[in-house]
Design brief:
By secondary structure, the chain is mainly alpha-helical. The protein has a domain of 143 residues. It is 55% helix and 0% strand. Helix 3 runs antiparallel to helix 4, helix 3 packs across helix 12 and helix 11 crosses helix 13. The chain is globular.
C-alpha cells in the first residue's frame, strides 16, 4: 500500500484535512507517489486560470514593460515567500504554496480596477469579489472532476488546501464596510468576502468543524506572503520604471496615502519610525537608481533583505506567542505592529508614486468603461457572445440572476488583452 500518499497525520494533518469533496480512486501503481497536498499543487499549476494570470494586470498592465510584474509572476513570488515561511513555522509547505499560487486566480482583467466594475454590475446575482471568484474557480469553473449528479466540482482539492486558499471565510452579508479610497480618489466600495451564496454548499463542507470566521494558519501565512511580496516588489518595479526615487521621498504625501489606504490611525511619528527602520537596512540606497547592473543588483539584494526582515520578525513573534504545533487551527500567525507599519509604508510609497499617477488614473477610467460595455454587450447577446462552458451555464440558468452570473464568470476569466479584443469584436458587431 502507498502509505506516503495517504498518511498525513505525522505532519499534523488528519484524514479530514486530506478529504476531497468527491472521493477519488487510487492512482495507478506505476504513477509517481505523491501526497494529497502535492497533487493539489500540481492541479493548480496546470489549471487554465493559472496560465491566464500571465496576461493580467498586477499594478500596471503586463504589456507595458518587460520588467514589470504580472499576476502570474506575482503569484510565483508570493508562493516562494509563503513556502519558506511555512517550512520555518512547521505547517505544510505544499498547502501554503498551493494557496499562494491560487490566491489571485479569481482576479478579473485590469486587476482591482476590473474587480470594482464587476462588483457594481453583479449586484443582481450576489456580487463579485476576487477571492470569492477564486473559490468558485477551484470548486466549480475549472474542469477536472464531476460528482455523481454530473456537476463540476472543479479541481476537487483537499479540504485543508481549499481552506488555506480562503482569505475571507465569510459571505457578502457578513462583510464589513470597505474603507479608504481608490487611486482616482473615489471611495472604495468593493466588499471583501470569500464565498458567493450559490457556492455555500462546498464552503460549508470545507469549513466543517470550524466556527465563526477565523482563518486557518495556512491562510494567514498566504495572506502575509501576499502583503510582503507586493509591498516590496511594487516598490522595486516603481524604482526601475523611474517613478520612485527612494532617496527623495515626499513623506507628508506618502503618510496621507498610507492613512487613506492602509492604516487610518497611524501617526506621523509611527510612520517616520517605520521608514527609519527600513532605511537602516544596509542595502537601502543613498544615491538615485541609474539602471546599471550594479544598481539593479543592489536593488535585488535590498528586496531580499526586506523580505527576510519581515518574515523573520513574524516567525520570531509567532514562536514567542505559543509552542504550536503551527498548523490549521492550533495556532495563529503573529505580525508585530512595527512590521505592519513598515509593510504599509512600502505600500504607501508605491500607491503614491505609481497607482495615483495621473496617466494611470486616466487609463483606469478607460478600462472600467470597456468592462462595463463588455458586460452589457454580453448580456444583450447571450450565449452567442460567450465561450461554450459559459454559454452552457447561461442556458441552464432558470433566471436572470443565473444568466448574469454566467456573463460575470466569462468576463472575469478574460485576460487584459482578450477583454480588449472581445470588446472590439462585440462592439463592432453592435455598431453595424
Amino acid at each position: 500500500m502507498d502509505t506516503r500518499a495517504i498518511d498525513t497525520t505525522a505532519e499534523g494533518y488528519d484524514d479530514a484535512a486530506a478529504e476531497r469533496l468527491v472521493a477519488e480512486p487510487p492512482k495507478r501503481v506505476d504513477a509517481p507517489i505523491r501526497t494529497p497536498f502535492e497533487r493539489d499543487r500540481a492541479r493548480v499549476v496546470h489549471a487554465a486560470s493559472s496560465r491566464r494570470l500571465a496576461a493580467k494586470t498586477q499594478v500596471v498592465g503586463p504589456q507595458t514593460d518587460d520588467f514589470v510584474r504580472n499576476r502570474l509572476t506575482h503569484s510565483l513570488e508570493v508562493a516562494q515567500v509563503a513556502r519558506d515561511l511555512a517550512r520555518a513555522l512547521g505547517c505544510h509547505p505544499d498547502i501554503v504554496e498551493t494557496a499562494a499560487l491560487a490566491h489571485d486566480l479569481g482576479h478579473p482583467p485590469f486587476g482591482h480596477n476590473g474587480e470594482r466594475v464587476l462588483a457594481e454590475l453583479s449586484e443582481p446575482c450576489g456580487g463579485f469579489e476576487g477571492n470569492a471568484q477564486t473559490l468558485r474557480l477551484l470548486t466549480r469553473l475549472e474542469s477536472k472532476t464531476f460528482d455523481g449528479d454530473g456537476r463540476s466540482v472543479g479541481l476537487n482539492l483537499t479540504r485543508a488546501t481549499l481552506d488555506a486558499c480562503t482569505k475571507y471565510p465569510w459571505t457578502l452579508a457578513q462583510a464589513e464596510p470597505p474603507g479608504g479610497v481608490h487611486a482616482d480618489g473615489s471611495p472604495r466600495t468593493v466588499l471583501k468576502f470569500g464565498v458567493y451564496d450559490a457556492d455555500l454548499p462546498v464552503f460549508t463542507w470545507m469549513r466543517r468543524g470550524v466556527s465563526g470566521t477565523r482563518r486557518c494558519l495556512e491562510a494567514q501565512v498566504m495572506d502575509l506572503a501576499d502583503d510582503v511580496a507586493y509591498s516590496v516588489h511594487d516598490v522595486e518595479d516603481g524604482v526601475v520604471a523611474g517613478r520612485i526615487d527612494l532617496t527623495r521621498l515626499g513623506r507628508a504625501a506618502i503618510w496621507e496615502t498610507v492613512r487613506e489606504w492602509y492604516l487610518p490611525a497611524a501617526t506621523d511619528e509611527e510612520l517616520e519610525g517605520a521608514l527609519a527602520g527600513l532605511a537602516a537596512i544596509d542595502g537601502w540606497p543613498h544615491t538615485p537608481y541609474d539602471g546599471t547592473r550594479r544598481a539593479l543588483a543592489a536593488l535585488k539584494n535590498l528586496t531580499s533583505d526586506v523580505i527576510g526582515r519581515f518574515c523573520g520578525s513574524v516567525q520570531a513573534a509567532t514562536f514567542a506567542e505559543g509552542r504550536g504545533p503551527f498548523v490549521r487551527y492550533q495556532a495563529d500567525l503573529v505580525v508585530p505592529e512595527r512590521t505592519r507599519q513598515e509593510i504599509a509604508v512600502l505600500k504607501g510609497i508605491a500607491a503614491h508614486y505609481v497607482m495615483r499617477a495621473d496617466d494611470r488614473v486616466a487609463l483606469m477610467k478607460q478600462q472600467r468603461e470597456l468592462l462595463g460595455e463588455l458586460v452589457e454587450a454580453m448580456l444583450v447577446r447571450g450565449p452567442e457572445a460567450l465561450d461554450r462552458q459559459f454559454a452552457d451555464d447561461w442556458l441552464a440558468s432558470p433566471d436572470e440572476a443565473g444568466r448574469t452570473r454566467a456573463v460575470i464568470d466569462q468576463v472575469a476569466s478574460l485576460t487584459d488583452a482578450s477583454a480588449v479584443a472581445r470588446h472590439r469584436l462585440l462592439m463592432g458587431r453592435t455598431s453595424r
